[in-house]
Amino acid sequence: MPTPRHVVLAALGALCTLTACARDKDTPLVVFNAGSLAAPVRDLLQAFRVRYPRAVPAQENSGSLEAARKVTELGKVPDVIAVADYSVIDRLLRPAHATWQVKFARNAMVLAYTDASAGAGEVNGENWWQVVQRPGVRVGRSDPALDPNGYRALMVLQLAEAHYAQPGLTAKLLQAMPARFVRPKEADLTALLQAGELDYAWTYRSIAKTTGLRYVELPKEIDLSDPSLADRYATAAVMVPGAKREGGDMLQLHGEPIVYALTIPTRAPHPELARDFVAFVLSAEGRAVVERSGLEPIDPVVADGAVPAGILPTKQ
């Protein structure tokens, strides 16, 4: 007796994994990412769609801390979360909301400016701290409670005080950056610089490069870019608000070399497609996109925790 057609269809449906079926139907792919990853993640998603044309990307840009708190405090769960500081995943998402992460890129802190900025013709890596203290010079930074670039800027000030042997320099530089020039994430400062609303802004080298801004190349001892100087960076410390689930206690963050990381939350709505996307980001093609954005790919990437099979490059 022939098997009923509806039984055959049901059996075939049971064999259809999300990864396979994603090619046959539209499947959302939601990524929460740091503001400094806005352009590279956009480009990565566009390249990924060439392989998975039925993937429907949705990208939310914010400060890394804000992105994590969308998960921990608002219950909004993306398929992938990519941050500008790996410790955000460690401190706010693991183990309740994520169990692993992959560190995939590095960056450096810079002081960006334009041709119209006050002191543009003379500012450099040795005198910038004097230039920004001049009357009328406008300096912007991002909010350390929302964005790693914000607390990294404060760490740079502390490291600069020691590097240039200028006691009290941190407080003087903070005074030169009033609250009216603080924005939620460093990417928000770019438009203000380009519009002439700011003379200088703390940002990442990758953003300055890709937006065509001029920037001060800071000494390695203070720009948080060199893994060999980790002990020196660790002498700087900044307090930021913790997660509400921890009672809102303050977290003390120490200076570290800048390391970007990503993960798939444990409750990701589309985990199979998310794994395909993360594997693409870590592939040779994905690393090329990351490098074009001004970031320095970590090769080989550094895995922390039980990363699902099929994500890490085979040479790992």
Structure, described:
- The model is unreliable at 5-22 (pLDDT under 50).
- The chain starts with a helix and ends in an 11-residue tail after the last strand.
- It has helices spanning 5-15, 18-21, 38-51, 64-72, 86-93, 128-131, 148-163, 169-175, 187-194, 205-211, 230-233, 271-282, 284-292; strands at residues 27-34, 55-62, 80-83, 100-106, 109-113, 139-142, 182-183, 200-204, 214-216, 237-241, 250-254, 259-263, 296-305.
- The protein is built from 13 helices and 13 strands.
- It has two domains: 16-106 and 259-305, 3-Layer(aba) Sandwich (D-Maltodextrin-Binding Protein, domain 2), CATH 3.40.190; 109-239, D-Maltodextrin-Binding Protein, domain 2.
- It is 36% helix and 22% strand.
Number of strands: 13
- Named CATH topology of the largest domain: D-Maltodextrin-Binding Protein, domain 2
Q: What value does the average pLDDT take? A: 91
Number of domains: 2
Reading the helices and strands in chain order gives: HHEHEHEHEEHEHHEHEHEHEEEHHE
Estimate the global geometry from the Cα principal axes.
globular
Low-confidence stretches: 5-22
What radius of gyration results from the CA coordinates?
Answer: 22 Å
Main sheet record: 6 strands, mixed
CATH homologous superfamily of the largest domain? Periplasmic binding protein-like II
Q: What is the structural class?
A: alpha/beta
CATH architecture descriptor name of the largest domain = 3-Layer(aba) Sandwich
Kindly estimate the percentage of residues that lie in beta strands according to DSSP. Answer: 15-25%
CATH class assignment of the largest domain: Alpha Beta
Q: What strand line-up does the widest sheet have?
A: 2-1-3-12-4-13
Q: Number of helix segments?
A: 13
Question: How widely separated are the two ends?
Answer: 52 Å
The helical percent reads: 25-40%
